[in-house]
């Protein structure tokens, strides 16, 4: 870490102290109590979350148009924010009982089989549902998967957060800029977990996502091409009855060239769409997914309203 000015270091250390206290307060909290606490905190913090609400409502309007009323859009936006915060904390709070988790899908057995054979695999998820809970389950089935993450700007807080995550799951953590470590993990037969729906202003790859032309980060597919490893689409969702579903799609093996890369990302988007439709309140609508001026957001096909 480069030497920071004294004022910045002091600010970082104070922020890290706050993170340390927060982690102590959250440790051992149950899933249900955290859900209630987040809903209460959201009501109190609503003025500071107004921009996030606005972004979520704009995204929902762009995708569904007049198929949702303003009240429905606002309700989904609020639930989406609560879901996001809960997902961020699920790697830290009390682990969910394994009997409440079901793993399914046509790709599950193949993922485990390839891993046992020493084949590197990439697990590609969207910000849908309980991704940290899914990561915890994966870390108990696979041999120390590596997770690509965005480091906190504050290095002291980053260290505390990674230590807290590692207490509840068995993973390595690779900063998103460290492509060399990602490829090394795959070439050694490891498992790499990545998020595939982060916005990328620099990506020229656009795919059909929820009926709209959408800029997609090409990193996961590019890693698949460079390593020759398959990309498994995976989703994790919470059920209303307190149970959790982990769903594994069939492996998407890489081809060569820009067209194959685009097709692989389009397949990831296509596989996830029915789950976003079924669990819209658990998707990350607060991300600025479609932005004017970058060519994304054009309507490619109609899409029906969300609902099970």
TrEMBL record:
<protein>
    <recommendedName>
        <fullName>Lipid A biosynthesis acyltransferase</fullName>
    </recommendedName>
</protein>
<keyword id="KW-0472">Membrane</keyword>
<dbReference type="Pfam" id="PF03279">
    <property type="entry name" value="Lip_A_acyltrans"/>
</dbReference>
<dbReference type="InterPro" id="IPR004960">
    <property type="entry name" value="LipA_acyltrans"/>
</dbReference>
<keyword id="KW-0997">Cell inner membrane</keyword>
<keyword id="KW-1003">Cell membrane</keyword>
<dbReference type="GO" id="GO:0009247">
    <property type="term" value="P:glycolipid biosynthetic process"/>
</dbReference>
<keyword id="KW-0012">Acyltransferase</keyword>
<keyword id="KW-0808">Transferase</keyword>
<dbReference type="GO" id="GO:0005886">
    <property type="term" value="C:plasma membrane"/>
</dbReference>
<dbReference type="GO" id="GO:0016746">
    <property type="term" value="F:acyltransferase activity"/>
</dbReference>
């Amino acid at each position: 870490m480069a030497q920071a000015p004294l004022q910045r270091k002091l600010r970082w250390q104070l922020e890290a102290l706050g993170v340390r206290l927060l982690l102590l307060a959250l440790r051992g909290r149950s899933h249900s109590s955290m859900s209630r606490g987040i809903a209460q905190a959201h009501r109190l913090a609503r003025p500071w979350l107004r921009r996030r609400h606005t972004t979520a409502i704009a995204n929902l309007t762009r995708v569904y148009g007049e198929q949702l009323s303003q009240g429905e859009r606002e309700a989904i936006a609020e639930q989406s924010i609560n879901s996001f915060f809960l997902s961020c904390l699920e790697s830290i709070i009390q682990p969910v009982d394994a009997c409440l988790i079901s793993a399914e899908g046509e790709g599950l057995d193949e993922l485990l089989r390839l891993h046992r054979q020493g084949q590197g695999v990439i697990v590609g998820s969207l910000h849908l549902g309980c991704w940290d809970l899914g990561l915890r389950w994966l870390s108990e089935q696979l041999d120390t998967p590596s997770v690509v993450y965005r480091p906190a700007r504050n290095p002291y807080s980053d260290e505390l957060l990674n230590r807290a995550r590692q207490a509840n799951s068995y993973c390595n953590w690779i900063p998103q800029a460290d492509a060399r470590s990602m490829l090394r993990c795959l070439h050694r037969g490891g498992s790499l977990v990545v998020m595939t729906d982060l916005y990328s202003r620099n990506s020229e790859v656009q795919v059909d996502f929820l009926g709209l032309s959408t800029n997609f980060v090409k990193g996961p597919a590019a890693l698949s091409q460079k390593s020759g490893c398959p990309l498994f689409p995976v989703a994790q969702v919470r059920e209303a009855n307190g149970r959790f579903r982990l769903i594994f799609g069939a492996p998407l093996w890489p081809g060569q060239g820009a067209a194959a890369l685009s097709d692989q990302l389009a397949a990831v988007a296509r596989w996830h769409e029915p789950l976003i439709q079924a669990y819209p309140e658990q998707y990350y609508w607060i991300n600025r997914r479609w932005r004017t001026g970058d060519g994304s957001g054009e309507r490619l096909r109609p899409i029906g309203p969300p609902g099970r």
